[in-house]
UniProtKB/TrEMBL annotation:
<feature type="transmembrane region" description="Helical">
    <location>
        <begin position="87"/>
        <end position="107"/>
    </location>
</feature>
<keyword id="KW-0472">Membrane</keyword>
<feature type="transmembrane region" description="Helical">
    <location>
        <begin position="137"/>
        <end position="160"/>
    </location>
</feature>
<feature type="transmembrane region" description="Helical">
    <location>
        <begin position="204"/>
        <end position="224"/>
    </location>
</feature>
<feature type="transmembrane region" description="Helical">
    <location>
        <begin position="341"/>
        <end position="359"/>
    </location>
</feature>
<feature type="transmembrane region" description="Helical">
    <location>
        <begin position="276"/>
        <end position="296"/>
    </location>
</feature>
<protein>
    <recommendedName>
        <fullName>Glycosyltransferase RgtA/B/C/D-like domain-containing protein</fullName>
    </recommendedName>
</protein>
<keyword id="KW-0812">Transmembrane</keyword>
<feature type="transmembrane region" description="Helical">
    <location>
        <begin position="12"/>
        <end position="35"/>
    </location>
</feature>
<keyword id="KW-1133">Transmembrane helix</keyword>
<feature type="transmembrane region" description="Helical">
    <location>
        <begin position="167"/>
        <end position="198"/>
    </location>
</feature>
<feature type="transmembrane region" description="Helical">
    <location>
        <begin position="317"/>
        <end position="335"/>
    </location>
</feature>
<feature type="transmembrane region" description="Helical">
    <location>
        <begin position="380"/>
        <end position="405"/>
    </location>
</feature>
Length: 616
Protein backbone atom coordinates (compact mmCIF):
# COMPACT_ATOMS: atom_id res chain seq x y z
CA UNK A 1 0.00 0.00 0.00
CA UNK A 2 1.51 3.27 -1.15
CA UNK A 3 2.04 5.85 1.53
CA UNK A 4 0.93 9.41 0.92
CA UNK A 5 3.71 11.88 1.57
CA UNK A 6 3.20 14.65 4.09
CA UNK A 7 3.56 17.23 1.30
CA UNK A 8 0.76 15.57 -0.67
CA UNK A 9 -1.50 15.46 2.41
CA UNK A 10 -0.84 19.16 2.87
CA UNK A 11 -1.79 19.84 -0.75
CA UNK A 12 -5.00 17.79 -0.37
CA UNK A 13 -5.84 19.73 2.77
CA UNK A 14 -5.37 23.04 0.95
CA UNK A 15 -7.67 21.85 -1.83
CA UNK A 16 -10.34 20.88 0.69
CA UNK A 17 -10.06 24.21 2.52
CA UNK A 18 -10.23 26.20 -0.72
CA UNK A 19 -13.27 24.18 -1.80
CA UNK A 20 -14.99 24.98 1.48
CA UNK A 21 -14.03 28.62 1.05
CA UNK A 22 -15.60 28.65 -2.42
CA UNK A 23 -18.80 27.23 -0.93
CA UNK A 24 -18.75 29.96 1.71
CA UNK A 25 -18.28 32.62 -0.96
CA UNK A 26 -21.24 31.21 -2.88
CA UNK A 27 -23.53 31.61 0.14
CA UNK A 28 -22.18 35.01 1.15
CA UNK A 29 -22.40 36.62 -2.29
CA UNK A 30 -25.96 35.35 -2.80
CA UNK A 31 -27.17 36.11 0.72
CA UNK A 32 -29.76 38.64 -0.47
CA UNK A 33 -31.46 36.29 -2.94
CA UNK A 34 -34.43 34.18 -1.89
CA UNK A 35 -37.49 32.44 -3.30
CA UNK A 36 -40.46 32.36 -0.95
CA UNK A 37 -43.09 32.50 -3.67
CA UNK A 38 -43.06 31.51 -7.33
CA UNK A 39 -43.31 33.95 -10.22
CA UNK A 40 -43.82 33.91 -13.99
CA UNK A 41 -42.04 30.99 -15.75
CA UNK A 42 -41.22 29.37 -12.40
CA UNK A 43 -44.89 29.37 -11.43
CA UNK A 44 -46.00 28.01 -14.80
CA UNK A 45 -43.35 25.28 -14.71
CA UNK A 46 -44.30 24.31 -11.16
CA UNK A 47 -48.01 24.17 -11.94
CA UNK A 48 -47.62 21.81 -14.92
CA UNK A 49 -46.49 18.94 -12.69
CA UNK A 50 -49.65 18.82 -10.58
CA UNK A 51 -51.59 15.67 -11.34
CA UNK A 52 -49.23 14.73 -14.16
CA UNK A 53 -47.38 11.42 -14.29
CA UNK A 54 -43.65 11.20 -14.95
CA UNK A 55 -43.75 10.12 -18.61
CA UNK A 56 -46.55 12.50 -19.54
CA UNK A 57 -44.62 15.33 -17.87
CA UNK A 58 -41.33 14.48 -19.58
CA UNK A 59 -42.94 13.81 -22.97
CA UNK A 60 -46.03 16.06 -23.17
CA UNK A 61 -48.34 16.01 -26.18
CA UNK A 62 -48.21 19.76 -26.79
CA UNK A 63 -45.11 21.89 -26.31
CA UNK A 64 -43.14 24.79 -27.73
CA UNK A 65 -39.79 23.52 -26.48
CA UNK A 66 -38.50 20.01 -25.97
CA UNK A 67 -36.32 19.60 -22.86
CA UNK A 68 -37.00 16.06 -21.56
CA UNK A 69 -33.70 15.75 -19.66
CA UNK A 70 -34.44 18.84 -17.60
CA UNK A 71 -38.11 17.94 -17.25
CA UNK A 72 -37.20 14.51 -15.90
CA UNK A 73 -34.87 16.03 -13.32
CA UNK A 74 -37.28 18.78 -12.29
CA UNK A 75 -40.17 16.30 -11.91
CA UNK A 76 -38.10 14.38 -9.37
CA UNK A 77 -36.68 17.56 -7.84
CA UNK A 78 -40.11 19.12 -7.30
CA UNK A 79 -41.38 15.91 -5.76
CA UNK A 80 -38.52 15.96 -3.25
CA UNK A 81 -38.80 19.56 -2.04
CA UNK A 82 -42.64 19.55 -2.22
CA UNK A 83 -43.92 22.93 -1.00
CA UNK A 84 -40.66 23.96 0.71
CA UNK A 85 -39.93 26.72 -1.79
CA UNK A 86 -37.35 28.29 0.51
CA UNK A 87 -35.03 25.34 -0.26
CA UNK A 88 -34.72 26.31 -3.94
CA UNK A 89 -32.11 29.06 -3.58
CA UNK A 90 -29.84 27.16 -1.13
CA UNK A 91 -29.90 24.15 -3.47
CA UNK A 92 -29.10 26.41 -6.43
CA UNK A 93 -26.22 27.92 -4.47
CA UNK A 94 -24.82 24.49 -3.64
CA UNK A 95 -25.03 23.48 -7.31
CA UNK A 96 -23.19 26.67 -8.29
CA UNK A 97 -20.56 26.03 -5.62
CA UNK A 98 -20.14 22.47 -6.92
CA UNK A 99 -19.51 23.76 -10.44
CA UNK A 100 -17.00 26.27 -9.08
CA UNK A 101 -15.13 23.54 -7.20
CA UNK A 102 -14.85 21.47 -10.39
CA UNK A 103 -13.64 24.63 -12.16
CA UNK A 104 -11.01 25.05 -9.44
CA UNK A 105 -9.59 21.55 -9.93
CA UNK A 106 -9.72 21.72 -13.73
CA UNK A 107 -8.16 25.19 -13.85
CA UNK A 108 -5.49 24.06 -11.41
CA UNK A 109 -4.59 21.45 -14.00
CA UNK A 110 -4.64 23.96 -16.86
CA UNK A 111 -2.77 26.77 -15.12
CA UNK A 112 -0.63 24.74 -12.69
CA UNK A 113 -1.54 27.28 -10.03
CA UNK A 114 -3.83 27.02 -7.02
CA UNK A 115 -4.04 30.80 -6.68
CA UNK A 116 -5.12 31.28 -10.29
CA UNK A 117 -7.57 28.38 -10.01
CA UNK A 118 -9.14 29.82 -6.87
CA UNK A 119 -9.34 33.31 -8.38
CA UNK A 120 -11.06 32.14 -11.56
CA UNK A 121 -13.45 29.85 -9.67
CA UNK A 122 -14.35 32.79 -7.42
CA UNK A 123 -14.98 34.94 -10.49
CA UNK A 124 -17.41 32.31 -11.73
CA UNK A 125 -19.30 32.34 -8.42
CA UNK A 126 -19.43 36.12 -8.07
CA UNK A 127 -20.31 36.75 -11.72
CA UNK A 128 -23.43 38.83 -12.24
CA UNK A 129 -24.40 36.32 -14.94
CA UNK A 130 -25.36 33.83 -12.19
CA UNK A 131 -28.50 35.74 -11.19
CA UNK A 132 -30.87 33.38 -12.99
CA UNK A 133 -29.08 30.16 -11.97
CA UNK A 134 -29.38 31.18 -8.32
CA UNK A 135 -32.53 33.28 -8.11
CA UNK A 136 -35.03 31.23 -10.11
CA UNK A 137 -36.51 27.75 -9.87
CA UNK A 138 -35.71 27.38 -13.59
CA UNK A 139 -32.11 28.23 -12.70
CA UNK A 140 -31.69 24.48 -12.31
CA UNK A 141 -32.15 24.17 -16.07
CA UNK A 142 -29.44 26.74 -16.81
CA UNK A 143 -27.12 25.09 -14.29
CA UNK A 144 -27.66 21.66 -15.82
CA UNK A 145 -27.00 23.04 -19.31
CA UNK A 146 -23.75 24.61 -18.11
CA UNK A 147 -22.71 21.40 -16.33
CA UNK A 148 -23.22 19.32 -19.48
CA UNK A 149 -21.45 21.90 -21.68
CA UNK A 150 -18.58 22.02 -19.18
CA UNK A 151 -18.44 18.21 -19.19
CA UNK A 152 -18.25 18.19 -23.00
CA UNK A 153 -15.36 20.62 -22.86
CA UNK A 154 -13.46 18.64 -20.21
CA UNK A 155 -13.95 15.34 -22.04
CA UNK A 156 -12.81 16.77 -25.37
CA UNK A 157 -9.79 18.37 -23.71
CA UNK A 158 -8.79 15.04 -22.19
CA UNK A 159 -9.49 13.28 -25.48
CA UNK A 160 -7.39 15.54 -27.72
CA UNK A 161 -4.52 15.57 -25.21
CA UNK A 162 -4.36 11.83 -24.53
CA UNK A 163 -4.90 8.40 -25.94
CA UNK A 164 -8.22 7.50 -24.29
CA UNK A 165 -10.93 7.26 -26.94
CA UNK A 166 -13.78 6.74 -24.48
CA UNK A 167 -13.70 10.41 -23.46
CA UNK A 168 -14.90 11.32 -26.93
CA UNK A 169 -17.87 9.02 -26.43
CA UNK A 170 -18.51 10.62 -23.04
CA UNK A 171 -18.52 14.00 -24.77
CA UNK A 172 -21.08 12.71 -27.29
CA UNK A 173 -23.33 11.51 -24.46
CA UNK A 174 -23.10 14.86 -22.66
CA UNK A 175 -23.82 16.64 -25.93
CA UNK A 176 -26.97 14.57 -26.39
CA UNK A 177 -28.08 15.34 -22.82
CA UNK A 178 -27.31 19.04 -23.20
CA UNK A 179 -29.37 19.39 -26.37
CA UNK A 180 -32.40 18.08 -24.48
CA UNK A 181 -31.70 20.23 -21.45
CA UNK A 182 -31.54 23.50 -23.37
CA UNK A 183 -31.74 23.56 -27.16
CA UNK A 184 -29.28 26.42 -27.67
CA UNK A 185 -26.33 24.11 -26.94
CA UNK A 186 -26.97 22.16 -30.13
CA UNK A 187 -24.46 24.60 -31.67
CA UNK A 188 -21.60 22.83 -29.85
CA UNK A 189 -21.66 20.01 -32.42
CA UNK A 190 -18.75 21.55 -34.43
CA UNK A 191 -16.54 21.10 -31.35
CA UNK A 192 -17.01 17.32 -31.64
CA UNK A 193 -15.85 17.52 -35.26
CA UNK A 194 -12.97 19.76 -34.24
CA UNK A 195 -11.79 17.18 -31.71
CA UNK A 196 -11.93 14.47 -34.40
CA UNK A 197 -9.85 16.60 -36.77
CA UNK A 198 -7.07 17.47 -34.31
CA UNK A 199 -6.80 14.01 -32.74
CA UNK A 200 -5.23 11.13 -34.62
CA UNK A 201 -6.91 7.74 -34.69
CA UNK A 202 -10.51 6.50 -35.02
CA UNK A 203 -11.44 9.57 -37.05
CA UNK A 204 -13.88 7.84 -39.38
CA UNK A 205 -15.65 5.90 -36.63
CA UNK A 206 -15.82 8.91 -34.34
CA UNK A 207 -17.07 11.14 -37.16
CA UNK A 208 -19.83 8.65 -37.93
CA UNK A 209 -20.80 8.45 -34.24
CA UNK A 210 -20.81 12.23 -33.77
CA UNK A 211 -22.77 12.85 -36.97
CA UNK A 212 -25.25 10.10 -36.11
CA UNK A 213 -25.86 11.65 -32.68
CA UNK A 214 -26.34 15.08 -34.23
CA UNK A 215 -28.81 13.74 -36.82
CA UNK A 216 -30.61 11.60 -34.24
CA UNK A 217 -30.89 14.56 -31.84
CA UNK A 218 -32.38 16.83 -34.47
CA UNK A 219 -34.68 14.09 -35.76
CA UNK A 220 -36.13 13.66 -32.26
CA UNK A 221 -36.59 17.41 -31.99
CA UNK A 222 -38.30 17.53 -35.37
CA UNK A 223 -40.68 14.72 -34.45
CA UNK A 224 -41.49 16.44 -31.15
CA UNK A 225 -41.81 20.00 -32.45
CA UNK A 226 -42.24 19.61 -36.21
CA UNK A 227 -39.34 22.01 -36.67
CA UNK A 228 -35.56 21.97 -36.71
CA UNK A 229 -35.27 25.63 -35.67
CA UNK A 230 -35.38 26.27 -31.90
CA UNK A 231 -37.94 28.61 -30.39
CA UNK A 232 -36.75 32.04 -29.35
CA UNK A 233 -37.16 33.75 -26.01
CA UNK A 234 -40.36 35.55 -25.01
CA UNK A 235 -42.61 33.28 -27.11
CA UNK A 236 -40.83 34.43 -30.26
CA UNK A 237 -39.85 32.23 -33.20
CA UNK A 238 -36.28 32.44 -34.46
CA UNK A 239 -37.46 31.63 -37.97
CA UNK A 240 -39.64 34.76 -37.91
CA UNK A 241 -37.55 37.21 -35.87
CA UNK A 242 -33.97 36.50 -36.98
CA UNK A 243 -32.23 39.44 -38.64
CA UNK A 244 -28.56 39.53 -39.56
CA UNK A 245 -28.14 43.11 -38.28
CA UNK A 246 -29.68 42.18 -34.91
CA UNK A 247 -27.49 39.07 -34.77
CA UNK A 248 -24.25 41.06 -35.07
CA UNK A 249 -25.57 43.70 -32.66
CA UNK A 250 -26.24 40.93 -30.15
CA UNK A 251 -22.73 39.53 -30.65
CA UNK A 252 -21.32 42.97 -29.88
CA UNK A 253 -23.50 43.25 -26.78
CA UNK A 254 -22.36 39.85 -25.52
CA UNK A 255 -18.68 40.68 -26.02
CA UNK A 256 -19.12 43.88 -24.02
CA UNK A 257 -20.90 41.94 -21.28
CA UNK A 258 -18.00 39.47 -21.08
CA UNK A 259 -15.55 42.35 -20.78
CA UNK A 260 -17.52 43.76 -17.85
CA UNK A 261 -19.56 46.43 -19.64
CA UNK A 262 -23.32 46.33 -19.11
CA UNK A 263 -25.13 47.44 -22.24
CA UNK A 264 -28.65 47.10 -23.50
CA UNK A 265 -31.89 47.88 -21.63
CA UNK A 266 -31.55 48.21 -17.87
CA UNK A 267 -34.53 45.96 -17.17
CA UNK A 268 -32.28 43.12 -18.40
CA UNK A 269 -29.07 44.05 -16.55
CA UNK A 270 -30.01 46.38 -13.69
CA UNK A 271 -27.82 49.33 -14.61
CA UNK A 272 -26.07 50.50 -17.76
CA UNK A 273 -22.29 50.95 -17.75
CA UNK A 274 -22.72 54.65 -18.51
CA UNK A 275 -24.61 55.16 -15.25
CA UNK A 276 -22.34 53.31 -12.82
CA UNK A 277 -20.12 55.05 -10.26
CA UNK A 278 -17.02 56.61 -11.78
CA UNK A 279 -14.67 54.65 -9.48
CA UNK A 280 -16.20 51.33 -10.55
CA UNK A 281 -16.11 52.44 -14.17
CA UNK A 282 -12.38 53.14 -13.87
CA UNK A 283 -11.80 49.74 -12.23
CA UNK A 284 -13.61 47.94 -15.04
CA UNK A 285 -11.63 49.83 -17.68
CA UNK A 286 -8.39 48.92 -15.87
CA UNK A 287 -9.53 45.30 -15.80
CA UNK A 288 -10.26 45.31 -19.53
CA UNK A 289 -6.83 46.84 -20.22
CA UNK A 290 -5.14 44.20 -18.03
CA UNK A 291 -7.02 41.42 -19.84
CA UNK A 292 -6.08 42.70 -23.30
CA UNK A 293 -2.43 43.20 -22.30
CA UNK A 294 -2.34 39.70 -20.80
CA UNK A 295 -3.66 38.16 -24.03
CA UNK A 296 -1.22 40.16 -26.17
CA UNK A 297 1.70 39.38 -23.87
CA UNK A 298 0.86 35.66 -23.86
CA UNK A 299 0.52 35.50 -27.64
CA UNK A 300 3.85 37.30 -27.96
CA UNK A 301 5.47 34.82 -25.57
CA UNK A 302 4.11 31.86 -27.55
CA UNK A 303 5.19 33.27 -30.91
CA UNK A 304 8.48 34.92 -30.00
CA UNK A 305 9.86 33.57 -26.74
CA UNK A 306 9.17 29.85 -26.99
CA UNK A 307 11.74 27.61 -28.63
CA UNK A 308 8.98 26.00 -30.65
CA UNK A 309 5.23 26.44 -30.98
CA UNK A 310 3.60 23.23 -29.84
CA UNK A 311 0.59 21.98 -31.76
CA UNK A 312 -1.11 21.13 -28.44
CA UNK A 313 -1.15 24.81 -27.53
CA UNK A 314 -2.89 25.79 -30.73
CA UNK A 315 -5.53 23.04 -30.65
CA UNK A 316 -6.37 23.62 -26.98
CA UNK A 317 -6.68 27.37 -27.41
CA UNK A 318 -8.93 26.78 -30.40
CA UNK A 319 -10.95 24.28 -28.34
CA UNK A 320 -11.76 26.79 -25.61
CA UNK A 321 -12.21 29.58 -28.12
CA UNK A 322 -14.66 27.41 -30.06
CA UNK A 323 -16.77 26.81 -26.97
CA UNK A 324 -16.84 30.57 -26.32
CA UNK A 325 -17.87 31.37 -29.88
CA UNK A 326 -20.46 28.59 -30.02
CA UNK A 327 -22.19 29.59 -26.79
CA UNK A 328 -22.10 33.28 -27.76
CA UNK A 329 -23.57 32.63 -31.20
CA UNK A 330 -26.34 30.44 -29.78
CA UNK A 331 -27.48 33.32 -27.58
CA UNK A 332 -27.46 35.93 -30.35
CA UNK A 333 -30.08 34.51 -32.70
CA UNK A 334 -33.17 35.55 -30.73
CA UNK A 335 -34.82 38.91 -30.09
CA UNK A 336 -32.77 40.04 -27.08
CA UNK A 337 -29.68 39.28 -25.02
CA UNK A 338 -30.22 38.27 -21.41
CA UNK A 339 -27.27 38.16 -19.04
CA UNK A 340 -27.97 34.58 -17.96
CA UNK A 341 -26.96 33.36 -21.43
CA UNK A 342 -23.47 34.79 -20.90
CA UNK A 343 -22.72 32.51 -17.94
CA UNK A 344 -21.61 29.60 -20.16
CA UNK A 345 -19.33 31.66 -22.46
CA UNK A 346 -17.92 33.38 -19.37
CA UNK A 347 -17.01 29.96 -17.95
CA UNK A 348 -15.20 29.03 -21.16
CA UNK A 349 -13.46 32.41 -21.16
CA UNK A 350 -12.12 31.62 -17.69
CA UNK A 351 -10.85 28.26 -18.97
CA UNK A 352 -9.17 29.95 -21.95
CA UNK A 353 -7.42 32.44 -19.66
CA UNK A 354 -6.32 29.59 -17.37
CA UNK A 355 -4.90 27.59 -20.25
CA UNK A 356 -3.04 30.55 -21.78
CA UNK A 357 -1.66 31.37 -18.35
CA UNK A 358 -0.48 27.78 -18.00
CA UNK A 359 1.24 27.88 -21.40
CA UNK A 360 2.94 31.15 -20.51
CA UNK A 361 4.06 29.58 -17.25
CA UNK A 362 5.57 26.60 -19.09
CA UNK A 363 7.52 28.95 -21.35
CA UNK A 364 8.82 30.78 -18.26
CA UNK A 365 9.85 27.52 -16.57
CA UNK A 366 11.72 26.41 -19.68
CA UNK A 367 13.61 29.67 -19.67
CA UNK A 368 14.41 29.09 -16.03
CA UNK A 369 15.76 25.60 -16.75
CA UNK A 370 17.77 26.95 -19.67
CA UNK A 371 19.07 29.72 -17.37
CA UNK A 372 17.85 32.44 -19.73
CA UNK A 373 16.47 34.50 -16.86
CA UNK A 374 18.41 35.60 -13.83
CA UNK A 375 17.42 35.61 -10.20
CA UNK A 376 13.99 37.26 -10.02
CA UNK A 377 10.53 36.77 -8.63
CA UNK A 378 9.65 34.96 -11.85
CA UNK A 379 12.45 32.49 -11.24
CA UNK A 380 11.64 32.11 -7.55
CA UNK A 381 7.94 31.39 -8.11
CA UNK A 382 8.31 29.68 -11.49
CA UNK A 383 5.80 32.07 -13.08
CA UNK A 384 5.79 35.02 -15.40
CA UNK A 385 5.43 37.85 -12.92
CA UNK A 386 3.85 40.07 -15.58
CA UNK A 387 1.21 37.47 -16.50
CA UNK A 388 0.41 36.68 -12.88
CA UNK A 389 0.03 40.37 -12.07
CA UNK A 390 -2.18 41.03 -15.09
CA UNK A 391 -4.48 38.07 -14.31
CA UNK A 392 -4.80 39.16 -10.67
CA UNK A 393 -5.60 42.74 -11.71
CA UNK A 394 -8.18 41.52 -14.22
CA UNK A 395 -9.72 39.17 -11.67
CA UNK A 396 -9.89 41.80 -8.94
CA UNK A 397 -11.46 44.39 -11.23
CA UNK A 398 -14.02 41.91 -12.58
CA UNK A 399 -14.91 40.82 -9.04
CA UNK A 400 -15.33 44.42 -7.91
CA UNK A 401 -17.42 45.27 -10.96
CA UNK A 402 -19.68 42.24 -10.60
CA UNK A 403 -20.24 42.89 -6.88
CA UNK A 404 -21.25 46.45 -7.77
CA UNK A 405 -23.53 45.30 -10.60
CA UNK A 406 -25.16 42.80 -8.23
CA UNK A 407 -26.38 45.67 -6.04
CA UNK A 408 -28.72 46.58 -8.90
CA UNK A 409 -30.29 43.14 -9.26
CA UNK A 410 -33.61 44.54 -7.99
CA UNK A 411 -33.88 46.58 -11.19
CA UNK A 412 -33.86 43.45 -13.37
CA UNK A 413 -37.39 42.53 -14.35
CA UNK A 414 -37.10 38.99 -12.97
CA UNK A 415 -36.23 40.23 -9.50
CA UNK A 416 -38.90 42.92 -9.56
CA UNK A 417 -41.50 40.21 -10.06
CA UNK A 418 -39.76 37.84 -7.66
CA UNK A 419 -39.73 40.46 -4.91
CA UNK A 420 -43.48 40.93 -5.33
CA UNK A 421 -43.98 37.16 -5.17
CA UNK A 422 -41.85 36.97 -2.02
CA UNK A 423 -43.85 39.73 -0.34
CA UNK A 424 -47.13 38.04 -1.32
CA UNK A 425 -45.90 34.84 0.33
CA UNK A 426 -44.66 36.69 3.41
CA UNK A 427 -47.96 38.53 3.94
CA UNK A 428 -50.10 35.42 3.50
CA UNK A 429 -48.70 31.91 3.71
CA UNK A 430 -45.81 32.63 6.08
CA UNK A 431 -47.73 35.12 8.23
CA UNK A 432 -50.66 32.85 9.03
CA UNK A 433 -48.76 29.75 10.14
CA UNK A 434 -48.72 28.30 6.63
CA UNK A 435 -52.45 27.52 6.79
CA UNK A 436 -54.69 29.30 4.32
CA UNK A 437 -57.41 26.66 4.11
CA UNK A 438 -59.96 28.81 5.95
CA UNK A 439 -58.87 32.17 4.58
CA UNK A 440 -60.08 34.39 1.76
CA UNK A 441 -57.54 36.80 0.30
CA UNK A 442 -58.60 40.19 -1.06
CA UNK A 443 -56.20 42.29 -3.14
CA UNK A 444 -57.07 45.97 -3.57
CA UNK A 445 -56.68 47.43 -7.11
CA UNK A 446 -54.33 44.77 -8.57
CA UNK A 447 -52.05 47.30 -10.25
CA UNK A 448 -49.39 44.57 -10.30
CA UNK A 449 -51.56 42.76 -12.88
CA UNK A 450 -51.67 39.42 -11.10
CA UNK A 451 -53.83 37.17 -13.29
CA UNK A 452 -56.52 34.89 -11.89
CA UNK A 453 -54.50 31.87 -13.03
CA UNK A 454 -51.28 33.07 -11.37
CA UNK A 455 -53.12 34.04 -8.20
CA UNK A 456 -54.59 30.56 -7.84
CA UNK A 457 -51.45 28.67 -8.87
CA UNK A 458 -49.32 30.81 -6.55
CA UNK A 459 -51.10 29.37 -3.51
CA UNK A 460 -51.45 25.91 -4.99
CA UNK A 461 -47.66 25.73 -4.86
CA UNK A 462 -48.09 25.53 -1.07
CA UNK A 463 -51.34 23.58 -0.95
CA UNK A 464 -52.48 21.71 -4.07
CA UNK A 465 -56.01 21.41 -2.64
CA UNK A 466 -56.50 25.13 -1.99
CA UNK A 467 -59.95 26.31 -3.04
CA UNK A 468 -60.26 28.08 -6.38
CA UNK A 469 -61.76 31.29 -4.92
CA UNK A 470 -58.82 31.85 -2.58
CA UNK A 471 -58.09 35.28 -4.15
CA UNK A 472 -60.54 38.05 -4.98
CA UNK A 473 -59.58 41.38 -6.54
CA UNK A 474 -61.47 44.44 -5.29
CA UNK A 475 -61.44 48.15 -6.17
CA UNK A 476 -61.85 49.46 -2.63
CA UNK A 477 -61.80 48.02 0.87
CA UNK A 478 -65.38 49.21 1.28
CA UNK A 479 -66.40 46.47 -1.16
CA UNK A 480 -65.89 43.79 1.49
CA UNK A 481 -67.55 45.36 4.54
CA UNK A 482 -66.36 44.34 7.98
CA UNK A 483 -63.05 42.45 7.88
CA UNK A 484 -63.54 39.09 9.59
CA UNK A 485 -61.11 36.58 11.04
CA UNK A 486 -61.21 34.48 7.87
CA UNK A 487 -60.15 37.39 5.65
CA UNK A 488 -56.76 38.67 4.51
CA UNK A 489 -56.68 42.08 2.82
CA UNK A 490 -53.64 43.23 0.84
CA UNK A 491 -52.83 46.48 -0.88
CA UNK A 492 -49.95 47.24 -3.24
CA UNK A 493 -47.00 49.44 -2.39
CA UNK A 494 -45.86 50.38 -5.89
CA UNK A 495 -42.98 52.50 -4.62
CA UNK A 496 -41.37 49.56 -2.79
CA UNK A 497 -42.70 46.98 -5.26
CA UNK A 498 -44.38 44.80 -2.65
CA UNK A 499 -47.68 43.73 -1.16
CA UNK A 500 -48.70 45.15 2.22
CA UNK A 501 -51.04 43.36 4.62
CA UNK A 502 -53.65 45.85 5.82
CA UNK A 503 -55.95 43.30 7.45
CA UNK A 504 -55.36 44.36 11.06
CA UNK A 505 -55.52 48.01 10.10
CA UNK A 506 -58.91 47.60 8.39
CA UNK A 507 -60.23 45.57 11.31
CA UNK A 508 -59.61 48.55 13.55
CA UNK A 509 -61.24 51.00 11.16
CA UNK A 510 -65.00 51.35 11.71
CA UNK A 511 -65.33 55.05 10.92
CA UNK A 512 -63.68 56.87 8.04
CA UNK A 513 -63.70 60.63 8.53
CA UNK A 514 -64.20 62.83 5.49
CA UNK A 515 -64.49 66.09 7.42
CA UNK A 516 -65.73 67.35 10.77
CA UNK A 517 -65.48 64.15 12.88
CA UNK A 518 -62.37 63.31 14.92
CA UNK A 519 -60.85 60.23 16.56
CA UNK A 520 -61.63 61.36 20.10
CA UNK A 521 -65.33 61.69 19.19
CA UNK A 522 -65.56 65.47 18.94
CA UNK A 523 -67.69 66.54 15.98
CA UNK A 524 -68.08 69.92 14.29
CA UNK A 525 -71.33 71.70 13.54
CA UNK A 526 -71.18 69.98 10.17
CA UNK A 527 -69.52 66.62 9.58
CA UNK A 528 -69.37 63.88 6.98
CA UNK A 529 -67.98 60.38 7.52
CA UNK A 530 -68.41 56.74 6.52
CA UNK A 531 -69.37 53.99 8.94
CA UNK A 532 -68.85 50.27 8.30
CA UNK A 533 -71.97 48.45 9.41
CA UNK A 534 -71.65 45.15 11.27
CA UNK A 535 -73.11 41.68 10.82
CA UNK A 536 -76.56 42.80 12.03
CA UNK A 537 -76.52 46.09 10.12
CA UNK A 538 -77.18 48.16 13.28
CA UNK A 539 -75.32 51.41 13.99
CA UNK A 540 -75.79 53.03 17.42
CA UNK A 541 -74.96 56.73 17.94
CA UNK A 542 -74.38 58.31 21.35
CA UNK A 543 -74.46 62.11 21.16
CA UNK A 544 -73.00 63.87 24.20
CA UNK A 545 -73.25 67.62 24.73
CA UNK A 546 -71.12 68.65 27.71
CA UNK A 547 -72.68 72.13 27.91
CA UNK A 548 -76.01 73.55 29.11
CA UNK A 549 -79.00 72.82 26.86
CA UNK A 550 -81.51 75.56 26.01
CA UNK A 551 -84.11 73.14 24.59
CA UNK A 552 -83.69 74.20 20.95
CA UNK A 553 -80.68 72.01 20.06
CA UNK A 554 -81.14 69.58 17.16
CA UNK A 555 -79.02 67.50 14.81
CA UNK A 556 -79.92 66.80 11.18
CA UNK A 557 -78.84 63.26 10.23
CA UNK A 558 -78.60 61.94 6.67
CA UNK A 559 -77.79 58.23 6.38
CA UNK A 560 -77.72 56.86 2.83
CA UNK A 561 -80.20 59.52 1.75
CA UNK A 562 -82.60 58.93 4.65
CA UNK A 563 -82.87 62.27 6.45
CA UNK A 564 -84.11 62.83 9.98
CA UNK A 565 -83.87 65.60 12.55
CA UNK A 566 -82.99 64.55 16.09
CA UNK A 567 -83.91 66.91 18.94
CA UNK A 568 -81.64 66.76 21.98
CA UNK A 569 -83.73 66.31 25.11
CA UNK A 570 -80.80 65.63 27.43
CA UNK A 571 -77.02 65.93 27.48
CA UNK A 572 -76.78 62.32 26.25
CA UNK A 573 -79.02 61.34 23.36
CA UNK A 574 -79.15 57.98 21.57
CA UNK A 575 -79.96 57.28 17.95
CA UNK A 576 -79.99 54.02 15.98
CA UNK A 577 -79.89 53.13 12.29
CA UNK A 578 -80.85 49.77 10.78
CA UNK A 579 -79.10 49.26 7.47
CA UNK A 580 -77.50 46.65 5.22
CA UNK A 581 -75.01 44.40 7.08
CA UNK A 582 -71.28 44.70 6.32
CA UNK A 583 -71.69 47.78 4.18
CA UNK A 584 -70.09 51.20 4.11
CA UNK A 585 -72.75 53.76 5.13
CA UNK A 586 -72.15 57.45 4.34
CA UNK A 587 -73.31 59.68 7.21
CA UNK A 588 -73.89 63.43 7.15
CA UNK A 589 -74.61 65.40 10.37
CA UNK A 590 -75.40 69.06 10.82
CA UNK A 591 -76.20 70.66 14.20
CA UNK A 592 -77.67 74.06 15.02
CA UNK A 593 -75.47 74.57 18.09
CA UNK A 594 -71.83 74.54 19.14
CA UNK A 595 -69.72 74.64 22.30
CA UNK A 596 -69.52 78.34 23.15
CA UNK A 597 -66.55 77.91 25.53
CA UNK A 598 -64.48 75.61 23.30
CA UNK A 599 -60.78 76.52 23.44
CA UNK A 600 -59.97 75.08 20.02
CA UNK A 601 -61.38 74.85 16.53
CA UNK A 602 -60.10 72.00 14.36
CA UNK A 603 -61.94 72.53 11.10
CA UNK A 604 -63.86 75.22 9.25
CA UNK A 605 -66.75 74.84 11.67
CA UNK A 606 -66.82 75.03 15.44
CA UNK A 607 -66.87 71.98 17.72
CA UNK A 608 -70.43 70.97 18.56
CA UNK A 609 -70.73 67.63 20.43
CA UNK A 610 -69.03 64.32 21.21
CA UNK A 611 -70.18 61.37 19.08
CA UNK A 612 -69.60 57.74 20.05
CA UNK A 613 -70.44 55.01 17.57
CA UNK A 614 -71.17 51.36 18.29
CA UNK A 615 -71.60 48.82 15.52
CA UNK A 616 -73.42 45.48 15.66
Amino acid sequence: MALIKIEEKYEYLKDVLLSLLLTGIAFIINAGISIRGLYMDDLLMWSTRRGTGFFKYVFPHEMRKFRPVYWAVTWIYQGIIKNNLEFIVPINILIGAGIAIVIYFFVKRLASSKITAFLLASMFLVSRFSYYDIGQYLGLMEAMAIIFAFAICICLYIYINGQTNRYFYYACVFYFLDCFTHERFVVLFPMLLFAIIVKKGNRIINAIIATAIFIFTNYIRFVALNSFIPEGTGNSKVSETFKLSRFFASIKTEILYLLGINTGPTHLNGIDFRNIHIAVKILIIIGIAAFIIFICKSVYSILMKSERIEFAWIKNILLFLGFIIGSVVSSAVTIRVEMRWLYAPFLFLLLLVAYIYGVDKKITIRKFKNKKIGTSLSRIFHVSLASATLVIIWGFCMLAGDIYYRSYYDKIYLFEGQNRANSLADETYHKYDEDLSNKRIYIIKNDFKLSDFDALEFFRAYDADIREDIVTFIDNYRDIGIVGEDMIVLCEDKKNNEYVNVTDFLKSIKVENIYGHYEDGWTDEEAKFNVMSGENGQIHFEIMYPGELTGNESVEIDACGDKETLDLVSNITYYEIDTTPNTVIPIYMKSNFYMPDAKEQRGDKKLSFILNIKIE
